[in-house]
Amino acid sequence: MREFGTTIFAEMTALALRTGSVNLGQGFPDTDGPPAMLERAVEAVRDGLNQYPPGPGVPELRQAVSEHREDHYDLAYDPDGEVLVTVGATEAIAAAVLALCEAGDEVIVFEPYYDSYAASVALAGAVLRPVTLRPAGGRFTFDPAELRAAAGPRTRAILVNSPHNPTGTVFTRAELEAIAGLCAERDLVAITDEVYEHLTFDGVPHVPLATLPGMRERTLMISSAGKTFSVTGWKTGWICAPAPFVRAVQTVKQFLTFTASAPWQLAVAYALRHELDWVADLRTDLQAKRDRLAEGLSAAGFEVYRPDGTYFVQADIRPLGFADGLALARELPSLAGVVAVPTQVFYAHPERGRHFVRFAFCKRDEVIDEAVTRLRKLT
Ligand SMILES: *Cc1c(COP(=O)(O)O)cnc(C)c1O
């Protein structure tokens, strides 16, 4: 694990604190989730729900997750056996990779990727097979031929994150069909990271890979409360999959954490049933924040990729005369008093993302405005 040393987030957050910069680096909201949900967590603590909950998760949450999948996606998962509550999506991904991959097995991932993917694959002794998302027509996408070429005899699984962090791409049905076709042809298992499932903009729909023909039986569908309800610190996630997969993942999970914290689970069960209108408002707000930041970054001289979902905007730094995003990210606090994240750290081939930096817009309007005002100094 040596190569996974300190994450870029630790470095950039420390830099933001040291320099008093506006931090648009790390992707967490600076406002709270629905008040009634927060109150449910407090009540759960006061009511004494403070001991180990069942390993698979509190029954109320498994039931709520199952109902939510059925209502939104017409996907039926048995709350007893096909739903597993995890310590955030991060644990679900790690446990799934550890459960499914033997040493030397290969896992296809789209780069740039969420930083825990490469680490989880390494922990399993498996091998990362990156497929690069490249800009085309104002969004990031993959070449289906490159995807097919990534699959070999040792390929076991594909990790699919849509809506995608950090590019903001929401895979279209055609893109998902290409992935599903490869899974069927090569008998791959799909692990889907759908933590931004509700955070898509301009009416762009999120289509779960498991809803495509033949995919439910070979997909482990992962999501989490963190992004949906603006409680990234709660680390409450879940995985929905056919029972044999869930059993395998739970076998691993029981020795990672055994179970996830009880009070949050009850509060999230409540939120999945009663706070989806709040989430709709969050989506509307975030879309306006996306536009606010994207326009500000364009005015500051960046070439901006307006995302269809997530918390993030990709900005090409070359129009401002910079070439290397990592060097710029380290200099940006002194140049402009703003912190961003260099996208190249999310690639197996860093040179392919060298000229991008990622800005987060899940922040109060005044924070975004202050960042944009400061960034105008760059021109
Ligand atoms: C935030 C994030 C996660 C982590 O989710 P947790 O529930 O906090 O573990 C996983 N994947 C992506 C793409 C994310 O952006």
What is the element layout, followed by pairings?
Layout: H1 8-19, E1 22-23, H2 35-46, H3 59-73, E2 83-86, H4 88-100, E3 106-111, H5 116-123, E4 127-132, E5 134-136, E6 139-141, H6 144-150, E7 155-161, H7 173-186, E8 189-193, E9 219-224, H8 225-228, E10 237-240, H9 243-256, H10 262-274, H11 276-299, E11 303-305, E12 312-316, H12 325-336, E13 338-339, E14 341-342, E15 356-360, H13 365-375
The protein binds pyridoxal-5'-phosphate (PLP).
Pyridoxal-5'-phosphate binds next to helix 4 and helix 8.
Domain Aminotransferase class I/classII large: 22-375
Family: Belongs to the class-I pyridoxal-phosphate-dependent aminotransferase family.
Keywords: Aminotransferase, Pyridoxal phosphate, Transferase
Spatial gap, N to C terminus: 40 Å
How many strands appear in the DSSP assignment?
15
What's the mean pLDDT score? 97
The CATH architecture assignment of the largest domain turns out to be 3-Layer(aba) Sandwich
Q: What structural category characterises the helix and strand content?
A: alpha/beta
Order of helices and strands: HEHHEHEHEEEHEHEEHEHHHEEHEEEH
Low-confidence stretches: none
Structural domain tally: 2
Round the Cα radius of gyration to an integer and report it.
20 Å
What is the topology, as strand order, of the major beta sheet?
2-10-9-8-7-3-4
| Fraction in helix | 40-55%
Shape: globular
Number of helices: 13
In the CATH scheme, what's the topology name of the largest domain?
A: Aspartate Aminotransferase, domain 2
CATH class of the largest domain: Alpha Beta
Ligands, deduplicated = pyridoxal-5'-phosphate
> What percentage of the residues does DSSP assign to strands (E)?
15-25%
Organism: Planomonospora sphaerica
Keywords: Aminotransferase, Pyridoxal phosphate, Transferase
GO molecular function: kynurenine-oxoglutarate transaminase activity; pyridoxal phosphate binding
Protein name: Aminotransferase
